[in-house]
Design brief:
This protein is mainly α. The chain has two domains: 159 residues, Serine Threonine Protein Phosphatase 5, Tetratricopeptide repeat (Alpha Horseshoe), CATH 1.25.40; 168 residues, Tetratricopeptide repeat domain (Serine Threonine Protein Phosphatase 5, Tetratricopeptide repeat, Alpha Horseshoe). 70% of the residues lie in helices and 0% in strands. The chain contains 17 helices and no strands. Helix 4 packs antiparallel against helix 5, helix 7 packs antiparallel against helix 8 and helix 11 packs antiparallel against helix 12.
């Protein structure tokens, strides 16, 4: 995660001395074992941002966050602790908390930069700065706050103009902002019943990009046909091209391999809706939300479909959950108001 991991590596107690030390109770021994696991996980996250947390217990995750909270309480400018905290919160679906942690990391790094020299690329903190901005943008995206996510990536691209990955992420977010899967394509006011292909306003460059992406995904799958992530990304590319049957097929392959991926369940729900299969779409969104209850798009899209089906009480519950995640989303606010109007008319 850092340019000089060895400088920031947390000092770990000797495992052997702890294991051989006589303990007075099994509870104390378990506490030490948990502590060692926490240290090991934090060390792994410092070395590899992609280290998985999905198999870790809620208790262990809580202990990791408690450990990091103590570190940041002692030193508000402990950048690496803020970064790891943000990463843990992001990986466990707590996106608002992740944004706050990455903001604290960015603030601590900005304090290290003098007013005279703002060239982040020349600083050792450059890698961490880019990481914090990128994952803050991803967390904002998860909450459906695309404009803020794009603004965050703009800051990153201004600091690191040579980084093509940042530009690719910006292009993807611009596309998502235009489409928002179901959201924005149809709302209670614009007629959600109409299924539409990708917007004509989408640049041909974007469509060409997805066609090229499909070729790359096919190459990857030739060598590794069980790559769930690539199958899911292939499904997303098909979706953005308006090829919904193919999108559904690819997403099904992905979920056969990795059924716990909440995002791909949510994409599957969107594809099913586009194929005029709303009840199946609802089941897919429910699957997504069982695995991660903090996906804004899944709650919103579920609410929009329920509204279309005339199930207004259920729609209200869903959209209120969407607003719990993002209180300012204009489409969700409009959907809630439309739903309340329908419920009021039903009383008359």
């Amino acid at each position: 995660m850092t340019a000089k991991d060895e400088e920031y590596e947390l000092e770990q107690p000797a495992r052997n001395s702890l294991k051989t030390e006589e303990t007075t109770s099994s509870g104390r021994y378990k506490e030490r074992e948990d502590y060692l696991e926490v240290i090991d996980i934090i060390g792994a996250l410092m070395q590899n941002k992609d280290f998985p947390l999905k198999n870790k217990s809620t208790l262990i995750i809580s202990k990791i966050l408690s450990f990091l909270n103590k570190e940041t309480s002692r030193d508000k400018n402990f950048t690496e602790a803020w970064l790891i905290k943000g990463t843990v919160l992001y990986k466990t679906g707590k996106y608002n908390g992740a944004i706050d942690a990455f903001d604290d990391a960015l603030e601590s790094m900005r304090k290290e930069i003098s007013e005279e020299e703002l060239d982040y690329r020349e600083k050792n903190i450059g890698i961490n700065y880019k990481y914090a901005l990128k994952f803050k943008a991803f967390a904002l995206c998860k909450l459906g706050r695309y404009k803020e996510a794009i603004d965050t990536l703009n800051e990153a691209s201004n600091a690191f103009p040579e980084d093509s990955e940042i530009q690719d992420n910006k292009n993807m977010l611009h596309t998502l902002e235009k489409k928002k899967l179901i959201k924005g394509m149809g709302s209670p006011d614009s007629g959600l019943k109409n299924s539409r292909s990708p917007s004509k306003n989408t640049a041909f460059f974007d469509l060409d990009k997805y066609e090229e992406s499909l070729k790359e995904f096919n190459k990857i799958l030739e060598s590794n046909p069980k790559d769930a992530e690539t199958w899911g990304n292939k499904g997303f590319a098909f979706y953005m091209l308006g090829r919904y049957e193919e999108a559904l097929s690819a997403l099904n392959r992905s979920l056969e391999i990795e059924p716990k991926n909440a995002d791909f369940w949510s994409f599957k729900g969107s594809a099913l809706y586009k194929l005029a299969r709303p009840e199946e779409a609802l089941k897919a969104f429910d699957k997504a939300l069982q695995k991660n209850p903090n996906i804004f798009e899944a709650w919103y899209n579920k609410g929009a479909i329920l509204f279309e089906l005339g199930r207004y009480k259920q729609a209200l519950f869903a959209v209120e959950n969407a607003l719990r995640i993002n209180t300012e989303d204009i489409n969700a606010l409009n959907l809630k108001n439309s739903t309340l109007d329908k419920l009021e008319k039903d009383k008359e």
